[in-house]
Amino acid sequence: MTSILNPRAQLLQTISEGLRPGQRELADWSGGPLAVSAVPGSGKSTGMAAAAAIAIARHQLHARRQLVLVTFTRSAAANLKAKVRQHLRQLNLPLTSFTVQTLHGLALNIATRNPEISGISLETTTLISPNQGHRLIRAAVEQWLGLSPVLYHRLIEGRQFDGEAAERLRRQSVLRTEVLPSLAYTVIHEAKSSGLLPSDLATLAQNFTQRLSDDVEDYQVLAIAAGLYERYQALLGERSLIDYDDMILAALRVLADDDIRRLWQTRVFAIFEDEAQDSSPLQTQLLEVLAADPEGLAPANLLRVGDPNQAINSTFTPADPVFFNQFCDRCQQQGRLATIEQAGRSTERIMAAANFALDWMNRSGLSGGEQPFRPQAIVPVGPDDPQPQANPAPLGQGVELARPEQVTDTVKRIAARVMELFQAEPNLSMAVLVRENRQGRFLRALLEDPERLGFDFSHGPPIYDVGQRDRNNQIPTEMLALLQFIERPHSPDALKAALRVLVSRDLLPKQDLNPLTPTPEQFLYPGPLEPPLQAEPAIQARRYCTGLLRSRLELPPYQLIPFLGLTLSYNQSELATADKLAARIAQQTAEDSSLAAMLQALQEIVGSEQFSPIEAEDTESQYMRPGQLTIITMHKAKGLDWDAVFLPFLHERMIPGKVWIPPQMEFLGDFDLAEVARAQLRAHIHAEHQSQAQPIPDIWDAWQQAGNLKKAEEFRLLYVAMTRAKRLLWMSAAKQAPFSWSNPDNLQAAEPCPLLPALQRSLKS
């Protein structure tokens, strides 16, 4: 026995000694709750995998008593699983002693084992796709409009209304297609992810009183939200559909049964959770129940790893970093908070810049009472760290700031610096991180235009535009919208969807589409008594739409998709994807090649989301491939890193920016109903979890809170972007920039993100 144990003990010691101090606290875990707050580039998954293997060996886990590792994406699960398996093979331990699952996969597994309690059976229920979800929300809105005429009329009246018929139609269009679907989507996900039922929301609305100034209308936002939520749930039930939140709720229903709960708790030795800053209250509750001791005699074996400073999804998903921060605070009081603060990713000058940014943004007060960050500095690794090339030498100064005259000058400077780096070290990985995809399109177009750029960039590294790949994924949806309009031009919704595609492809200027869509026939083919269109964007819109309708008369159905690809000015890879889509639909409709049959086939493709685009270049290109320049959004860059990272267009208007009201919605007031509802719900949920009676903010206070939350998240997003760089971080804000990136040639004076001047002073001191 000794001969077997000694080599294993030595291997375990080797694994533990190969970890950094913070990671070692993970490996030393022996039970109970543990919060692990990790800085960017600190090796969270490496520490988790080692800790998992050590726990499996220490507690002799097996198939009937498993360690459960939970991640948020399938790719992260596969990566973590491979690392744990590698350790277990070295230790000669059973591979069945652990499981790695996504949170929703774990919930579905529990729910479908007991369909009589959960109400979910794989044979009778279907998981709703995002496209189905959007259609269901639109249906819920239409039903609510018929059931709630008083609340709807109050919304139409807005702040003031003179009763004019055209304005009424415009407001109805805005409410039906924009305001209410957005409110429904936000509230349904916020409420369900916190365990609130439609009846709970209705009760909350009834008991909610607010004092409003004379210039703010009381629209009863929570009452509207409750009605929309109730209709959505009814439609889900009628169609035997479930969404992702239903999986968690169903699993919790199953675990409410004492015997079943004890059975699961006996099987689960402990839960290790990754990316815990993105958990919703309901997801956290599920993990706490599973990790609890079956007899209730010991604290839950729950180890949660995350970085609250990288929470960048909370303003558009139910993810809320407040709850992981609270878990960290509770664990800290018990001496159970570990911090992984050593990181080997970046050169020291980049880490110093990131630490300065975190501290400055926390002290700035620009996000109101909302402190964006948990105070936590990144420190370099020790001299004996096992990571090869940890804290590498800088490229140039390591951190470089620029203030060009115009955004075109910004791109020229990036191109020149990239060429300089590429010629010196051809295998460097490089990336330009943009805040939105339209910036990426502008950047790529200029890099591929030698005349405007001033030299031929094709002699430099190949460009991999991640946004282009995403745009290819949208092609089936765009084709469906345009073909539905061609088939039903009299439908206001079909007309508006087609116009949205044309605007998103920059074929039409950005404009309020609602005045154009309530009466399609008058817009498309006005009679002699109709007043002529005055605005050039509206005239362009009519010209495009009538051209689309002519194509149905002049072309056979099978030629429509290639024609639409040309109309939308698709590039090479997009046209190839459109051709592939047309070929697939032609194959499916060989016996009936009518437009109606094509639409049905296309709806099935979009609904099932089973269509892979074609890329003109190497389909195996990876985001971080050496010798390549990647163009990617800041959000998509999370979890990745490059030798050199360029952050252009860092203007105050965008980071931290401010919450913005589209002009077509201003008749309701100076706020967004969806964001107001989100802030009100979160205030209620936070109070419940803290067991404190706190009033729900009124419309105006909720709107202010929403603005502060957005600014805090934009600061965290900038921090995430800065910490992607290993050897060079290049940041800039041009003195002149477009007000909107839908029209990048319309330049005006633009202030830099307020961090940049402060960081510039810090670098000089």
From TrEMBL:
Pfam families in alphabetical order:
UvrD-helicase, UvrD_C
- The UniProt annotation places ATP binding at 38-45
For this protein, the record's SUPFAM superfamilies field holds: P-loop containing nucleoside triphosphate hydrolases
What protein am I looking at?
DNA 3'-5' helicase
Protein keywords: ATP-binding, DNA-binding, Helicase, Hydrolase, Isomerase, Nucleotide-binding
Q: Which residues form the UvrD-like helicase C-terminal domain?
A: 368-639
Organism equals Vasconcelosia minhoensis LEGE 07310
Which segments cross the bilayer? none
Gene3D superfamilies the record matches:
1.10.10.160, P-loop containing nucleotide triphosphate hydrolases
| Enzyme type, top EC level | isomerase
